[in-house]
Write a structure and sequence with these properties.
199 residues; alpha/beta; three-stranded parallel β-sheet; 4 helices; 20% strand
């Protein structure tokens, strides 16, 4: 098994394009993946995506690389208690286990994210503003996707303390998709990963 840890979005996009061309299956992992490993010939690791891009003073936002350690969010959220049970990356928290308190803590804060499709396209979703009503909200689709929709590169979060009492109300651990929902999910995966290289 080969492990690649690209330094830039362009490097990652080229690895994905090559995998599609050569029909090679890829797994996407963080620096401390806490889910069972899928044995694919190639693993794409996000550990080098740890950049920080703070907003302008007063914006109450920060953009972080998907490989940024989840527990280090506390430095941007001084009035919040960051759930301590998750030791992985932001991207791993977003795309990984849907039942963790850390996951429920992060999801409502996400304003925007950048990801790479297997075609090599770099796509930006959402906006770096609290009010954004243009189009459908696609970001929640990445929650629990386990890397099946693409490689998340960058996540912009709201650091305002208004989220202190906000929690996802859906008991995600009890969620069982209906047959029609499974069909919809499979269609989305085919749309985001038309060559079927992610698993």
């Amino acid at each position: 098994m080969q492990i690649y840890a690209p330094q830039t979005a362009e490097e990652a996009a080229e690895i994905l394009r090559t995998a599609v061309k050569d029909r090679i299956k890829i797994s996407i992992r963080g620096f401390s993946s806490q889910s069972p490993a899928v044995q694919n010939p190639v693993t794409l690791c996000t550990r080098n995506f740890k950049h920080i891009e703070p907003g302008h003073p007063g914006d109450l936002i920060v953009s972080l690389g998907a490989g940024f350690p989840f527990m280090q969010l506390a430095q941007f959220l001084p009035d919040e208690v960051v759930p301590p049970e998750y030791a992985g990356s932001l991207g791993g928290c977003l795309c990984g286990n849907r039942t963790l308190p850390a996951h429920r803590f992060l999801i409502p804060r996400i304003l925007a994210l950048t990801f790479i499709r297997t075609t090599g396209e770099i796509i930006k979703l959402g906006a770096k503003s609290v009010k954004d009503v243009a189009g459908y909200k696609i970001i929640p689709l990445f929650a629990g996707s386990r890397g099946r929709l693409g490689l998340v590169m960058d996540i912009t979060i709201n650091t305002a303390s208004i989220f202190r009492d906000l929690r996802l109300r859906i008991p995600l651990s009890d969620y069982k998709p209906s047959p029609s929902m499974k069909t919809l999910i499979e269609g989305l995966i085919r749309t985001f990963d038309p060559a079927g290289i992610l698993s």
